[in-house]
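Reviewers asked in the last cycle whether our approach scales beyond single polypeptides. To address this, we selected a multi-component target totalling 240 residues and predicted its structure end to end. The input consisted of the following lines:
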Amino acid sequence: MEDERELARRWVKEAKSIAALTGAGISAESGVPTFRGEGGLWRNFRPEDLATPEAFATNPVLVWEWYQWRRELIGKAEPNTGHKALARLEASGKEFTLVTQNVDGLHERAGNHRVRKLHGDLWRLRCTSCGAEWPDRRVPLAKLPPHCQCGGVARPAVVWFGEPLPMEVLRASADAAEEAEVLLVVGTSAVVYPAASLIPVAKRGGAKIIEINTEETPASGVADCRLRGAAGEVLPGLVT
Ligand code: APR
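The resulting structure, written as C-alpha coordinates, was:
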Protein backbone atom coordinates (compact mmCIF):
# COMPACT_ATOMS: atom_id res chain seq x y z
CA MET A 1 0.00 0.00 0.00
CA GLU A 2 1.53 3.30 -1.15
CA ASP A 3 1.71 5.76 1.73
CA GLU A 4 0.52 9.35 1.27
CA ARG A 5 4.01 10.75 0.76
CA GLU A 6 4.90 8.17 -1.89
CA LEU A 7 1.56 8.86 -3.59
CA ALA A 8 2.18 12.62 -3.57
CA ARG A 9 5.73 12.11 -4.81
CA ARG A 10 4.46 9.98 -7.71
CA TRP A 11 1.79 12.56 -8.61
CA VAL A 12 4.41 15.33 -8.68
CA LYS A 13 6.81 13.16 -10.71
CA GLU A 14 4.15 12.24 -13.30
CA ALA A 15 2.54 15.70 -13.62
CA LYS A 16 3.46 17.88 -16.57
CA SER A 17 1.92 21.06 -15.11
CA ILE A 18 2.09 21.88 -11.43
CA ALA A 19 0.99 24.92 -9.44
CA ALA A 20 1.73 25.78 -5.83
CA LEU A 21 -0.17 28.12 -3.52
CA THR A 22 1.96 29.06 -0.53
CA GLY A 23 1.17 30.89 2.69
CA ALA A 24 3.01 32.07 5.79
CA GLY A 25 3.59 28.50 6.97
CA ILE A 26 6.29 27.90 4.35
CA SER A 27 8.32 30.72 5.92
CA ALA A 28 7.74 29.60 9.53
CA GLU A 29 10.92 27.46 9.56
CA SER A 30 12.84 30.55 8.41
CA GLY A 31 11.82 32.18 11.71
CA VAL A 32 9.02 34.30 10.24
CA PRO A 33 5.92 34.06 12.49
CA THR A 34 2.67 33.08 10.80
CA PHE A 35 -0.48 35.15 11.19
CA ARG A 36 -2.72 32.39 12.58
CA GLY A 37 -2.44 28.83 13.83
CA GLU A 38 -0.07 27.44 16.48
CA GLY A 39 2.68 29.91 17.40
CA GLY A 40 1.45 32.37 14.80
CA LEU A 41 1.29 35.90 16.14
CA TRP A 42 2.68 39.08 14.77
CA ARG A 43 3.63 40.91 17.96
CA ASN A 44 0.12 40.41 19.42
CA PHE A 45 -1.51 42.23 16.53
CA ARG A 46 -4.24 40.63 14.46
CA PRO A 47 -3.43 41.38 10.81
CA GLU A 48 -7.09 42.29 10.35
CA ASP A 49 -6.54 45.22 12.77
CA LEU A 50 -3.41 46.69 11.20
CA ALA A 51 -3.23 45.58 7.58
CA THR A 52 -6.07 47.88 6.50
CA PRO A 53 -6.32 51.27 4.73
CA GLU A 54 -8.34 52.55 7.70
CA ALA A 55 -5.62 51.65 10.22
CA PHE A 56 -3.03 53.37 7.99
CA ALA A 57 -5.16 56.49 7.59
CA THR A 58 -5.74 56.65 11.36
CA ASN A 59 -2.21 55.87 12.48
CA PRO A 60 0.36 55.53 9.69
CA VAL A 61 3.25 55.47 12.17
CA LEU A 62 1.81 52.49 14.13
CA VAL A 63 1.20 50.55 10.93
CA TRP A 64 4.71 51.42 9.73
CA GLU A 65 6.19 50.35 13.11
CA TRP A 66 4.57 46.96 12.59
CA TYR A 67 6.01 46.71 9.03
CA GLN A 68 9.39 48.02 10.22
CA TRP A 69 9.43 45.21 12.80
CA ARG A 70 8.46 42.67 10.12
CA ARG A 71 11.11 43.99 7.71
CA GLU A 72 13.80 43.75 10.41
CA LEU A 73 12.75 40.19 11.23
CA ILE A 74 12.35 39.05 7.63
CA GLY A 75 15.56 40.86 6.62
CA LYS A 76 17.44 38.39 8.87
CA ALA A 77 15.52 35.32 7.61
CA GLU A 78 16.95 32.85 5.11
CA PRO A 79 14.99 30.70 2.65
CA ASN A 80 14.50 27.21 4.10
CA THR A 81 14.49 23.74 2.53
CA GLY A 82 10.82 24.14 1.66
CA HIS A 83 11.45 27.30 -0.37
CA LYS A 84 14.46 25.63 -2.00
CA ALA A 85 12.45 22.56 -2.98
CA LEU A 86 9.99 24.78 -4.89
CA ALA A 87 12.93 26.51 -6.59
CA ARG A 88 14.12 23.06 -7.71
CA LEU A 89 10.63 22.35 -9.02
CA GLU A 90 10.80 25.47 -11.17
CA ALA A 91 14.25 24.46 -12.43
CA SER A 92 13.05 20.90 -13.20
CA GLY A 93 11.66 21.98 -16.55
CA LYS A 94 8.08 21.05 -15.67
CA GLU A 95 5.41 23.69 -16.24
CA PHE A 96 5.42 25.20 -12.76
CA THR A 97 3.61 28.29 -11.45
CA LEU A 98 4.32 29.49 -7.94
CA VAL A 99 1.57 31.62 -6.42
CA THR A 100 2.24 33.07 -3.00
CA GLN A 101 0.30 35.04 -0.42
CA ASN A 102 3.59 35.87 1.26
CA VAL A 103 5.20 39.29 0.95
CA ASP A 104 8.57 38.27 2.44
CA GLY A 105 10.44 37.71 -0.84
CA LEU A 106 11.91 34.39 0.39
CA HIS A 107 10.77 32.48 -2.73
CA GLU A 108 12.80 34.77 -4.98
CA ARG A 109 15.78 34.53 -2.65
CA ALA A 110 15.50 30.71 -2.81
CA GLY A 111 15.81 30.90 -6.60
CA ASN A 112 12.25 31.04 -7.96
CA HIS A 113 12.06 33.57 -10.80
CA ARG A 114 8.40 33.40 -11.74
CA VAL A 115 6.53 34.21 -8.52
CA ARG A 116 2.96 35.43 -8.68
CA LYS A 117 2.61 37.62 -5.62
CA LEU A 118 -1.07 37.90 -4.74
CA HIS A 119 -0.56 40.16 -1.73
CA GLY A 120 2.30 42.37 -2.92
CA ASP A 121 5.84 42.80 -1.68
CA LEU A 122 7.09 43.97 1.73
CA TRP A 123 10.29 45.28 0.09
CA ARG A 124 8.49 47.75 -2.16
CA LEU A 125 6.91 51.10 -1.21
CA ARG A 126 4.08 52.98 -2.93
CA CYS A 127 3.31 56.68 -2.73
CA THR A 128 -0.20 57.42 -1.43
CA SER A 129 -0.22 60.68 -3.40
CA CYS A 130 1.29 60.09 -6.84
CA GLY A 131 1.09 56.28 -6.90
CA ALA A 132 4.80 55.80 -7.72
CA GLU A 133 6.21 52.46 -6.56
CA TRP A 134 9.84 51.58 -5.88
CA PRO A 135 11.99 48.93 -4.18
CA ASP A 136 13.42 49.83 -0.78
CA ARG A 137 15.26 47.19 1.23
CA ARG A 138 16.67 49.58 3.86
CA VAL A 139 16.34 48.16 7.39
CA PRO A 140 15.46 50.12 9.39
CA LEU A 141 13.81 52.87 7.36
CA ALA A 142 15.20 56.14 8.72
CA LYS A 143 11.93 57.98 9.17
CA LEU A 144 8.37 56.69 9.66
CA PRO A 145 6.29 57.15 7.67
CA PRO A 146 8.72 57.27 4.71
CA HIS A 147 7.97 59.82 2.00
CA CYS A 148 7.98 59.84 -1.78
CA GLN A 149 10.13 62.30 -3.74
CA CYS A 150 6.88 64.10 -4.55
CA GLY A 151 6.42 64.71 -0.82
CA GLY A 152 3.56 62.22 -0.45
CA VAL A 153 3.45 59.65 2.38
CA ALA A 154 4.64 56.19 1.29
CA ARG A 155 2.97 52.91 2.31
CA PRO A 156 4.08 49.30 1.98
CA ALA A 157 3.23 48.03 -1.53
CA VAL A 158 1.18 45.17 -0.08
CA VAL A 159 -2.51 44.31 -0.38
CA TRP A 160 -4.47 45.15 2.77
CA PHE A 161 -7.78 43.72 3.88
CA GLY A 162 -10.58 45.29 1.89
CA GLU A 163 -8.26 46.12 -1.03
CA PRO A 164 -8.39 44.46 -4.45
CA LEU A 165 -5.64 42.04 -5.45
CA PRO A 166 -3.60 42.88 -8.57
CA MET A 167 -6.05 41.70 -11.25
CA GLU A 168 -3.44 40.49 -13.75
CA VAL A 169 -1.68 38.41 -11.07
CA LEU A 170 -4.95 36.92 -9.85
CA ARG A 171 -6.09 36.07 -13.39
CA ALA A 172 -2.78 34.42 -14.28
CA SER A 173 -2.85 32.50 -10.99
CA ALA A 174 -6.39 31.27 -11.62
CA ASP A 175 -5.42 30.17 -15.15
CA ALA A 176 -2.44 28.25 -13.78
CA ALA A 177 -4.59 26.63 -11.08
CA GLU A 178 -7.19 25.62 -13.66
CA GLU A 179 -4.57 24.04 -15.95
CA ALA A 180 -2.54 22.36 -13.21
CA GLU A 181 -2.56 18.58 -12.90
CA VAL A 182 -1.29 18.97 -9.33
CA LEU A 183 -1.81 21.88 -6.92
CA LEU A 184 0.48 21.97 -3.89
CA VAL A 185 -1.22 23.92 -1.08
CA VAL A 186 1.59 24.73 1.31
CA GLY A 187 1.45 26.44 4.71
CA THR A 188 -1.79 28.35 4.34
CA SER A 189 -4.80 28.44 6.63
CA ALA A 190 -6.92 28.78 3.46
CA VAL A 191 -9.23 31.32 5.13
CA VAL A 192 -8.31 34.47 3.18
CA TYR A 193 -10.01 35.10 -0.18
CA PRO A 194 -9.70 35.36 -3.10
CA ALA A 195 -6.34 33.56 -2.66
CA ALA A 196 -8.00 30.48 -1.16
CA SER A 197 -10.44 30.31 -4.08
CA LEU A 198 -7.58 29.00 -6.24
CA ILE A 199 -7.98 25.67 -4.47
CA PRO A 200 -11.53 24.91 -5.70
CA VAL A 201 -10.58 26.40 -9.09
CA ALA A 202 -7.77 23.84 -9.39
CA LYS A 203 -10.05 21.06 -8.15
CA ARG A 204 -12.70 21.90 -10.76
CA GLY A 205 -9.95 21.90 -13.39
CA GLY A 206 -9.17 18.30 -12.47
CA ALA A 207 -6.03 18.89 -10.40
CA LYS A 208 -4.98 16.58 -7.62
CA ILE A 209 -4.74 18.74 -4.47
CA ILE A 210 -1.84 17.99 -2.13
CA GLU A 211 -2.03 19.88 1.16
CA ILE A 212 1.16 20.32 3.18
CA ASN A 213 0.40 21.76 6.60
CA THR A 214 1.10 21.06 10.24
CA GLU A 215 -2.62 21.41 11.02
CA GLU A 216 -6.06 20.72 9.54
CA THR A 217 -7.47 23.61 7.48
CA PRO A 218 -10.70 24.27 5.54
CA ALA A 219 -8.76 23.03 2.49
CA SER A 220 -8.10 19.63 4.08
CA GLY A 221 -11.54 18.36 3.09
CA VAL A 222 -10.92 19.19 -0.59
CA ALA A 223 -7.36 17.79 -0.65
CA ASP A 224 -6.72 14.45 -2.34
CA CYS A 225 -3.63 13.98 -0.21
CA ARG A 226 -2.96 15.57 3.20
CA LEU A 227 0.68 15.59 4.28
CA ARG A 228 0.77 16.60 7.94
CA GLY A 229 4.17 18.05 8.63
CA ALA A 230 6.48 21.01 8.26
CA ALA A 231 6.93 22.28 4.71
CA GLY A 232 10.71 22.31 5.10
CA GLU A 233 10.62 18.63 6.00
CA VAL A 234 7.90 17.42 3.58
CA LEU A 235 8.58 19.35 0.34
CA PRO A 236 12.15 18.12 -0.30
CA GLY A 237 10.78 14.56 -0.31
CA LEU A 238 8.29 15.43 -3.06
CA VAL A 239 10.76 17.05 -5.42
CA THR A 240 13.67 15.03 -6.77
N1 APR B 1 4.90 23.98 7.56
C1 APR B 1 3.67 23.97 6.98
N2 APR B 1 2.61 24.65 7.45
C2 APR B 1 2.81 25.40 8.56
C3 APR B 1 4.05 25.46 9.24
C4 APR B 1 5.12 24.72 8.69
N3 APR B 1 6.35 24.71 9.25
N4 APR B 1 3.91 26.29 10.31
C5 APR B 1 2.63 26.73 10.30
N5 APR B 1 1.96 26.17 9.26
C6 APR B 1 0.59 26.43 8.84
C7 APR B 1 -0.40 26.74 9.92
O1 APR B 1 -0.99 25.52 10.40
C8 APR B 1 -1.45 27.58 9.16
O2 APR B 1 -2.42 26.73 8.57
O3 APR B 1 0.63 27.59 8.03
C9 APR B 1 -0.64 28.22 8.05
C10 APR B 1 -0.41 29.70 8.26
O4 APR B 1 -1.66 30.33 8.18
P1 APR B 1 -1.75 31.92 8.29
O5 APR B 1 -0.90 32.40 9.41
O6 APR B 1 -3.21 32.26 8.25
O7 APR B 1 -1.05 32.44 6.95
P2 APR B 1 -1.69 32.56 5.51
O8 APR B 1 -2.59 31.42 5.22
O9 APR B 1 -0.58 32.82 4.58
O10 APR B 1 -2.56 33.91 5.64
C11 APR B 1 -3.15 34.38 4.46
O11 APR B 1 -3.75 36.41 5.61
O12 APR B 1 -3.07 38.04 7.10
C12 APR B 1 -3.29 37.76 5.76
O13 APR B 1 -2.22 38.74 3.94
C13 APR B 1 -1.99 37.89 5.01
O14 APR B 1 -1.15 36.54 3.22
C14 APR B 1 -1.72 36.48 4.51
C15 APR B 1 -3.12 35.88 4.46
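The first strand starts at residue 17 and ends at 22. We regard this as preliminary and will revisit it once experimental data from Aim 1 are available.
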